[in-house]
Amino acid sequence: MKKTLSNYGFTLVELTVVGVIIGILATIAVSQATKVMEGTRARNAMATVVQLGNAHRMLILDTKNTNIYGQVRNEDSSTIGKTCQELLTNNSPRALIKCNYAADQDWGVNNDNTYNFYLCSTANPAGECCSKFQDTSAIVACAKRNVDSKTKPSAGSGSWTYVYDSNGACRAYTATCNDKMIIPTSEICPQSTANECK
Q: Which residue, 153, 150, 151, 143, is CA-closest to 116?
């Protein structure tokens, strides 16, 4: 008996194998895409903390005001309409932007950004990432990975911090300063040693 076209087709086993292969490839693609996105966010944070650190160092040199500290945030009711001098007097991190030392960008509202950025002061090492190191007087800016953000870190990546000091050096730290996990680093911001932490 001669087979007709209607008798040809795929068996259930063949379709299942193809489905499994597509599923495996999709899993690999999604995990690689997540790593690439995380690395991009980390490089952006490194560049931003270096920019903020340099701007903060220039502001300190020009104004001799070493007391500006706190989280860099979007303009709100406490800073809107204020002059550069008023923000400097109040030691507001927004002075860095209002006095044209740093460009404004979306700094996030209610910790919804991937990273939180802080300016550090010798007088008051405020901020989660400014006060966790032995020599807090040298730190001028830092960026901390926000684990509560909408863009949570991928599994196993935890939380990390980038610190920029008054000598122009950037260092990357894990959440507890001595974790053995891999964190995104670069030549401008290498991973630090655990003995630099408190």
A: 143
